[in-house]
Structures are given as C-alpha cells and as structure tokens.
Amino acid sequence: MKKLVVAVLSLGLMASAQAEVTDADYAQVRDQFAKLNLTVNAVSEAPLSGLLQVFTNRGLFFTSTDGQFFIEGNIYDLKKQVLVNDEQMRPYIQQQLAAAKDGVIEFKAKDEQYVINVFTDPSCGYCRKLHNEIQDYNDAGITVRYLAFPRGGVGSQTYLEMQHIWCSKDNRAALTLAKEGKDVTPAMCANPVKAQYELGQSFGINATPALVLPSGRLIPGYQPAKTLLAQLKAGA
C-alpha cells in the first residue's frame, strides 16, 4: 500500500493539469465503491492530478477518475508539510457538523471562546474522565457538544442506553448519570443516535472519545482542558 501511494504522488508531481471529471465518472466511482460496501457521500477532485477524493460512510479514500484504482491510506504533501487526508477532511467535517448541531447535548461555557464536538460513549473510561472534568473545559471557555457514538454499534446495549439518554427530558443530567455508571430511566423518542454514530463513522472515527476542533481537525482520545486550550489558541 505504501508503494502505491508513493507511485501516485510521483504521477501527481509530473502531471501538469488535472483531467476534467464528468458526471459519468462520478457515477462510475459510486458503482465501484458499492462493490466494497462503501456508500459514497461526496466526490470531488483531489489535490493530486488524475485522482478523485471520495467521502464515504467509512471515511475518506482516493481513486482514479474511473473508479478502477482504490487507494486507502495517508497521502502527504511534502511541499506544504501537511497530511492531505486531514486537510481535505476538515471542511467536510465542519459542514456536516453544522448540519447536525441541533441533535447534540451541549455543556456551554459561560464565557465561551471555543466550541468543540465530542463523539462519546458513556461506557468508555476516557469519555468518563473527560466528562468528570467538564467544568474545567467550561471554565477555560470551551463549550462541549456531545454526539453519540456507541462503540458496540447499532443494536448494542450502549446504543439503547444512548437513545434513553438523548430522549430524557433532561438529557444533560441523564448523560452525566450514565457517565457515573448509574442507570438512566428508559425513554424513547425520535432521536439522532443512529445518525450521529453513522456521521462519526463517515469521519473515520472508530473509538471514543473523538474530539473535533472548530477547524475541523479530528483528535482521537482524551485531552486535558489546559492542553486542549493551548491547541485551540494556536489555531489547531
């Protein structure tokens, strides 16, 4: 796989112009990706000549314009010193989160300076640690918006529990109870848990907590409030 990515980079450097991408190309890419059980959410030209970047239900991949060659892995821009995957995902993540903001459980900072989104699971140890320190984040001016990501998947016990949380009259209190290992009163309603879980998967998330900064940058794992604040101030 590494050899394939290097070869693609070489082709990209030698090419002088990107080939025009047609609707027929997009349709062919969708058909080819369907063979891999991947649902294509969006397709656009990649920064590398002759390639498309494909946003799917399982993250970002790259392909040739006809969909024949599938590239899974990281691509680095050595001139700009950036990870292309991350650079291209950020605006996509920002757009998708903006559309999903009404379904979050928010712990708002009184003097809000930054807003982060956190994909969480109440049974996750580091998710509990982060929530135990929620006041530290709020005191640092960081508003935390939680989205559901049951690690066991749709149909798991945690998935059911998260539906109860999101459907509670006071879902903030219910989430806190669950993070403390306490039982949540069953409650059902039309809820965004499945959609949020699938959204996280489309970002390439496979573990919790997963933090998304205002820039669209995705950080896997727990971050202390002070460490996170330093990154936010640096424009991460």
Gyration radius from CA atoms, angstroms: 20 Å
Cα separation of the termini: 29 Å
- According to CATH, what is the topology of the largest domain? Glutaredoxin
Compute the number of helices: 9
Strand content bin: 15-25%
Query: Low-confidence spans: pLDDT under 50, at least 5 residues?
Result: 1-19
| CATH homolog superfamily of the largest domain | Glutaredoxin
Helix content: 25-40%
List the helices and strands and how they pair.
Layout: H1 2-14, H2 23-34, E1 40-45, E2 51-56, E3 59-64, E4 70-71, E5 76-77, E6 82-83, H3 84-99, E7 105-107, E8 114-120, H4 125-132, H5 134-139, E9 142-148, H6 157-167, H7 171-179, H8 193-202, E10 210-212, E11 218-220, H9 225-233
Parallel strand pairs: 8-9
Antiparallel strand pairs: 1-2, 2-3, 3-4, 5-6, 7-9, 8-10, 10-11
Helix pairs in contact: 6-7
